Amino acid sequence: MLVHPMPDPIAIHIGPLAVHWYGLMYLLAFAQFIALGRLRIKQPHIAAVGWKKEDLDDMLFYGVLGVVLGGRLGEILFYNPAYYFAHPADMIAVWKGGMSFHGGFLGVMLAMYLWGRKRGRNLMDIMDFIAPMVPLGYAAGRLGNFINAELPGRPADPSLPWAMIWPNVDNIPRHPSPIYQMLVDGILLFIILWIFARHSRPRMAVAGMFSLLYGCARFFTEYFRVPDYEVHFGGITISAGQMLSVPMIVLGIILLVLAYKLKQQAQAPVEPVAASKS
């Protein structure tokens, strides 16, 4: 049986400045966005529609604002509003962790919409472009959660080789749920989506595939995590994370259906118009 190592959440001290592991994971996420974005721009079907390296830096600035503001607001409003409204000073304490992916997702969509208006690009073209770069950034965030000993898992069978005791919670063996989500929702999703996006797809297809796969993966891995809270529908109990993932699954299905339906319509032969007799 394993025991969570409970590392110091502060990675390094630079004079009076404390650099937290959680913040470093976000820097890693933004760095991989640039690195993967440069690889993606080299793909022929991406270069053909005019994406350039200069777009990445400008887009990253908007994206960082969307992730941080949306992620924090999502954490406050979706998961623990009572605590944060009782402790307003903690609303800005992002170094302690507590960032909602679903809130960050909405924040990025808004940020990309504003960037697209500035650059004259369609929002769905932007989302198709950035979707394959998102999962590894998410994986880095989940690693930060694990280092901070956040998001403990549900109790696990002690015979499970990787069952882990979280000393900050109790002495019960638990699933290391942040690691599950890092591997499944992050790394596995990245591999599938990167392969899918290597070839030209109709508008909305890559974004739709991301939304569908992430929603399904998150719904599954939430079963191993202690829920922030649970909701009940028709005798079925689901966690907050699962509830927020359902709209992403629905959105993904809608986008994929629309993408391929519009492609089919565009490829349909045009019936010639019969000449009228005078």
How far apart, in Å, are the first and last alpha carbons?
Answer: 90 Å
Q: Structural class given helices, strands, pairing?
A: mainly alpha
**Oligomerization:** single chain
The chain-level mean pLDDT equals: 90
Pfam families: LGT (PF01790)
Function: Catalyzes the transfer of the diacylglyceryl group from phosphatidylglycerol to the sulfhydryl group of the N-terminal cysteine of a prolipoprotein, the first step in the formation of mature lipoproteins.
GO molecular function: phosphatidylglycerol-prolipoprotein diacylglyceryl transferase activity
Pathway: Protein modification; lipoprotein biosynthesis (diacylglyceryl transfer)
Descriptive report:
By secondary structure, the chain is mainly α. The chain has a domain at 126-262. The protein has helices spanning 21-41, 44-47, 53-79, 81-86, 101-119, 123-130, 134-147, 177-196, 205-221, 240-267, and strands spanning 2-3, 10-14, 17-20, 164-165, 173-174, 230-233, 236-239. The strands form three sheets. Strands 1-4-5 form a three-stranded mixed β-sheet, with no helix packed on it. Strands 2-3 form a two-stranded antiparallel sheet. It has a two-stranded antiparallel sheet with strand order 6-7. α3 (53-79) packs antiparallel against α5 and α6 crosses α9 (205-221). The longest helix is centred in the last third of the chain and has 28 residues, at 240-267. It is globular and about 75 Å long. The termini are far apart. The mean pLDDT is 90.
